[in-house]
Amino acid sequence: MPWNDNANPGPWGSPPPGEGEKGLRGPGGPRRPDGPQVPPQLNEILRRLRDMFGGPGGGLRPGAFVVVAAVAFGFWAFSGLYQVGPNEQALVTTFGSFSRKEGPGLRYHLPSPIENVEKVAITTLNKTDVGGSAGADTPEEALMLTGDENIVDVNFSVTWRVSDAPNYVFTMRDPDDAVKAVAESAMREVVGKTDLQSIITNGRGQLQRQTADLMQKTLDRWGAGVTIVEVQVRSANPPPEVVPAAREVLNAGQEAQSKVNEADTYRNRVVNEAKGDASRITQSAEAYREQAVREALGEASRFNQIYGEYRRAPEVTRQRLYIETMQRVLAKSNKVVVDGKGTTAPIILPPDVFRPKAKAPVETAGPGEGQTAASPDAASAGAPK
């Protein structure tokens, strides 16, 4: 039967008085037996809207359409407001074409579909790993061929950030994959020019710097808008099959480096000591030169002074020089003074008188014995003076 046929009440009985074909609305509003009130149904909502905007002929009132259009336009216009974070940069496209970029703050763009906005984090540091992590299976990207034709397992990470947001968004389709591909390619090129021994010992710093420089040049040539902050090698080991032999080589290299360091230490010590000795000898020579020069100047000055006195009084100066010279010569020699008064024959002195005096040896006298006789020098001491 039809849904609006009230002639046959059905299993629920006849409707209450006051309710007819218009539905469940009665004098008291919507009712349900022993139940709470429910919101108006769709027909009731439509009827209210029709009463609000409907005209006399059943159409819309003249101002209703304007109000609806104004409200819709307001919502559409205010949909262009957006917020840019302090670490972000907003890229505005007009009908799909890049038009401008906006900094942090509250911004506005023409609502979609006229303009659209894409936000890019420009200060956030991004990290891309190449080669997996420690303890995991070695991927193919981690195995590389060195310059001396050995295979090395290199696991490293690349830290990068966005430097040019428009190029970053519109130049590369997938920036993360592009950075990883460039990192792997650059590392393979640098490893291919480096020996295995240098990679697994003390050449990692140079390996990281060369890889970062090569990555930056490649990305700049592409116009990717990415700046490489750091390349860090987490591990660089030979394949598992040759690890024992590689360890022996590593130990030998460390021992050789230790010997080199010891030799450098010894060389520095010897060189410093030699420099010290040379400096000491040079200073001694300079001091001797200065002393000799000063003494020569002093002697020359004294001679000039004596010469000046000699020119003023030659006889007196000669006599004084003779007396001073004899005083210096006879000060430490044996002297014999002979009074020549009343003497007519020549005086002959024994030669021992003019010999230097020597100390007589003193010997301990034995029992019943006297002291040893005095030396001839001692005997000559009683010579007349």
Question: What does this entry look like structurally?
Answer:
By secondary structure, the chain is of the alpha+beta class. Among the domains are: 43 residues, no CATH class; 113 residues, Tetrahydropterin Synthase, Chain A (2-Layer Sandwich), CATH 3.30.479.30. Strands 6, 7, 8 and 9 form a four-stranded antiparallel beta sheet that branches. Strands 3-2-5 form a three-stranded antiparallel beta sheet. Helix 4 packs across helix 6 and helix 7 packs across helix 8. The longest helix has 70 residues. It starts with 41 loop residues before the first helix and ends in a 6-residue tail after the last helix. 11% of the residues are buried. The C terminus is likely disordered.
Keywords, please?
385 residues; alpha+beta; Tetrahydropterin Synthase, Chain A; four-stranded antiparallel beta sheet; three-stranded antiparallel beta sheet; 9 helices; elongated
Describe the structure concisely.
The chain is α+β, with helices and mostly antiparallel strands. Helix content is 43%, strand content 16%.
Provide the fold topology:
Layout: H1 42-53, H2 62-78, E1 81-84, E2 88-94, E3 97-102, E4 105-108, E5 115-121, E6 126-130, E7 143-145, E8 151-162, H3 165-170, H4 175-191, H5 196-200, H6 204-222, E9 226-237, H7 243-312, H8 314-330, H9 376-379
Antiparallel strand pairs: 1-4, 2-3, 2-5, 6-8, 7-8, 8-9
Helix pairs in contact: 4-6, 7-8
